[in-house]
Amino acid sequence: MIALVEAPKQSVGDILEEPVSASRINCFHSCRMKFFFRYVQKIQKPASAALHLGSSVHKALQEWSQRRWLGKPSGAEDIKEAFNTHWESNQDENPVSFAEGEEATQRDKAWGLVEHYLVNTPIPVEEKPEAVEVGVEADLSKHGLPTLRGFIDLIRPGGLVVDFKTTATSPNEDQVLHRNETQLTAYGILYREATGSKESGFELHHLVKTKAPKLVVTRHKPVTEMQKSKLFRSIESYLSGVQREDWVPSPGLQCAACEYFNECRGGLQ
């Protein structure tokens, strides 16, 4: 195990007892050193401009979905107040160091994405959701695994699970499922746990942050038994690695954008 100066702030035993999520599993398998800094040492980092933008867009679309669920007006003017409130409150809680003039640019870009979505969404405004931003847990102890936890953005009628994403580039449809398979499989298991029914499928709504905003919707089939097996094996690998304190880095191009780059370099010296 790589020796670091700071002692862990959370024990391995505590981590193993916590529920797992798609984001936690993906973090561990993408870079175990990053997992160590985020979940073991619990090093907090300032929010990036991209994260702040994505969070604000997500909040606005959550407001849109909730208003439709409650039968309230859901036009752009009704959504913008929630967007502005979240932008300000999120800045107070997780300040972003914007360059001069950048905050206004990012704010306009974020709201432009929301407006584009409201005009181009494939979801009829009169359609009432089954659920909005719902937290779900699934007890996987019968498989020898911990509790699985997740938050589903939106469930359309008939059990169609929707997830909103912001991205800098248009998604490659051939790669979308591969990149998001852990998340979608987890959502399928969680949906079945909560409802006792099988999901009808998935939609990923990608809002692309190009100069002229774009909306790309990819549709995916219900979770298969093979996908469930892959997820369970992935969780087993996660548990085994955490138990061994297997905090090894995964150097690559992704390191340039990693918030723990300096900590990782220090730990390797």
Features:
269 residues, alpha+beta, Lambda Exonuclease, Chain A, five-stranded mixed beta sheet, 15% strand, disordered N terminus
Structure description:
- There is one protein chain.
- This protein has a domain at about 130-235: Lambda Exonuclease, Chain A.
- It is about 50% helix and about 15% strand.
- The two termini are about 15 Å apart.
- The longest helix has 23 residues, at about 175-195.
- By secondary structure, it is of the alpha+beta class.
- α2 (about 20-30) crosses α3, α4 runs parallel beside α6 (about 100-120) and α5 runs antiparallel to α6.
- β2 and β3 form a beta hairpin.
- The protein has nine helices and five strands; from the N terminus they run ααααααβββαββαα.
- Strands 1-2-3-4-5 form a five-stranded mixed sheet, sandwiched between helices.
Topology summary:
Layout: H1 12-17, H2 22-30, H3 32-40, H4 49-70, H5 76-93, H6 102-120, E1 131-138, E2 148-156, E3 160-167, H7 173-195, E4 201-208, E5 214-220, H8 225-243, H9 261-268
Parallel strand pairs: 3-4
Antiparallel strand pairs: 1-2, 2-3, 4-5
Helix pairs in contact: 2-3, 4-5, 4-6, 5-6, 7-8
Compact summary:
It is built from 9 helices and 5 strands; from the N terminus they run ααααααβββαββαα. It has 269 residues and is α+β, with helices and mostly antiparallel strands. A 5-stranded mixed sheet has the order 1-2-3-4-5, with helices on both faces.
